[in-house]
Amino acid sequence: MASLKVLSALDTAKTQLYHFKAIIVAGMGLFTDAYDLFCIPPIMRLIGRVYYEHESEDHKYVIPPIITSTMVVIALLGTAIGQVAFGRLGDRIGRRRVYGVALIIMVLSSFGCGFSVCSTRWCVLLSLGLFRFILGIGIGGDYPLSATIMSEFSNYTTRGAFIAAVFSMQGFGILAASMVTMVVCAIFEHASDGVAEDLTPKDADFAWRLILMIGAIPAGLTFYWRMMMPETASSNLFQSKIYNHHLPMKEQLNAYQDAFQVAKFQAIIAACSTIPGYWFTVYFIDKVGRVKIQMMGFFFMALVYLALGIPYYKYWDKKPNTGFLVLYALTFFFANFGPNTTTFIVPAELFPARFRSTCHGISGATGKVGAIIGSVGFLWASHDGEGKVYPEAIGMTFSLIMLAIVCLLGMVVTFLFTRETMGRSLEENENDD
Length: 433
What we know:
Helices cover 77% and strands 0% of the residues. The protein is mainly alpha-helical and 433 residues long. It has one domain (2-248, 257-424): Growth Hormone, Chain: A (Up-down Bundle).
């Protein structure tokens, strides 16, 4: 009876300052997640300059695609494991206690990513891969706990908006990763002006480590507030190809300028497409509903992917192509004003409290498995059976059309199987058969 009174009080409570504080505190893990994921493309440019000596025809030091894909897959695998494990622990021993453990793992592994004492290429890559896997576990643990805690602190009239606002912190993490990378590269380039002819300054090996370690700061700052909280009652997988093929680049860029250009592109996408998508969801989620937004997002993503994929060989396969980049940015908008955000919200509302965190973790981990399959699948689509690399256009066309098909399937599954949770209390959702 007491717990029902608490739930009733939460459902009728007015929006107060602690709601916004909870959004910041709960969202900082997602901020860190996005920071660490989106600082990797420019960092891989720097690592390529430092540790790969061979030079391509367009004067860029290139890391083999399998290495870049492996770095993505390792982090996703750790995230999937963390979602399942910490989701279950959150239901068994309490959200708050496990929340702190996930945060500590994120902070320590972020520092670990930059603290490799190795000097050889493979030792550095193995060390970075290990700490990114551990970082993924911490990030994965943060996902179900953040969504569950926010859902259980909110009232039913604004619950969707508050959970979406937590998730929107990813957008600011993307922007922060790009801005930090640009600032660090600008500072290091200014300091190395005396060696203008050196396209790969020696300090570049320190620059990428510093960018990674800075990602631990915002998460660490929220640790105290997380411990003071009361106990409660997917498409960037082939971004490196996009950058290499469509991003305008001048010849003979040094390492810092190369990474700066990639980070600048990411910042523009985040500011003009990704973040607006999140906040469109925040505004409309409790007016339109979860199911309609999810179906709409899937539908328009499918249209954009088809518009990119079908004419790719004859029309988009140019370097650079501004029209392609504009359409590509729209996929981020409709992902976040659509399924990327709603699939974070619905599991936190739909499942019973006794295994809400567990089921949210399983739901999120399933998505990460799909992302891993997509990452490996894109690499596979770029090669024939004998390991020969297909022309760029063939792999891109296949991947973009497959993404469109997946989006259309997602729209159908949403229509057939997803229950609307808008305007319903958590106990109403729990008591439904």
